[in-house]
Amino acid sequence: MSQCCGKVPTPEDVQAIRRSIEGHQSRYQGDIGEQAVSEYVTNELELNAEFFDQRQHGFDGVYRDGAGKLVLIESKLTETPGLAALGHTQHGREGSVEWVEYVATQMTDPTSKEYYSPDNAKIGEEILSIGPENVSFLVVHIDPETLETDVSKLR
Rounded to an integer, what distance in angstroms lies between the CA atom of residue 41 and that of residue 36? Predict the structure, then answer.
């Protein structure tokens, strides 16, 4: 085991290190999960990535199936499996019709810095025109311990 400055970390040092990375760990874990899910849905589910300017909030991925229909993806790299891993927001549970409608509406709003871009506006308009309830929504979960992947279809 290497040591910095010849000091063996105390339990307090370890706790301080853990506290310092807590805010970043979730983001990095999310980034890793989203990349792994992207590869999975492209290779295993044969979905085609749609150009999507992912901001801080919203969908983890936007794809099209073989028929050209939109498929929204929520990526989860957690010990909590599938649908149980979906979070609750002010605008409904992730993946719910209400939440999808909210995100799509924000994607079309030029004043929304968290969601809007010209490319996102096109996707948001498509979602709203066909109805959020009619857009496929998949939760792709990867267990961080076993790396097993499962897919749950909300609709």
Answer: 9
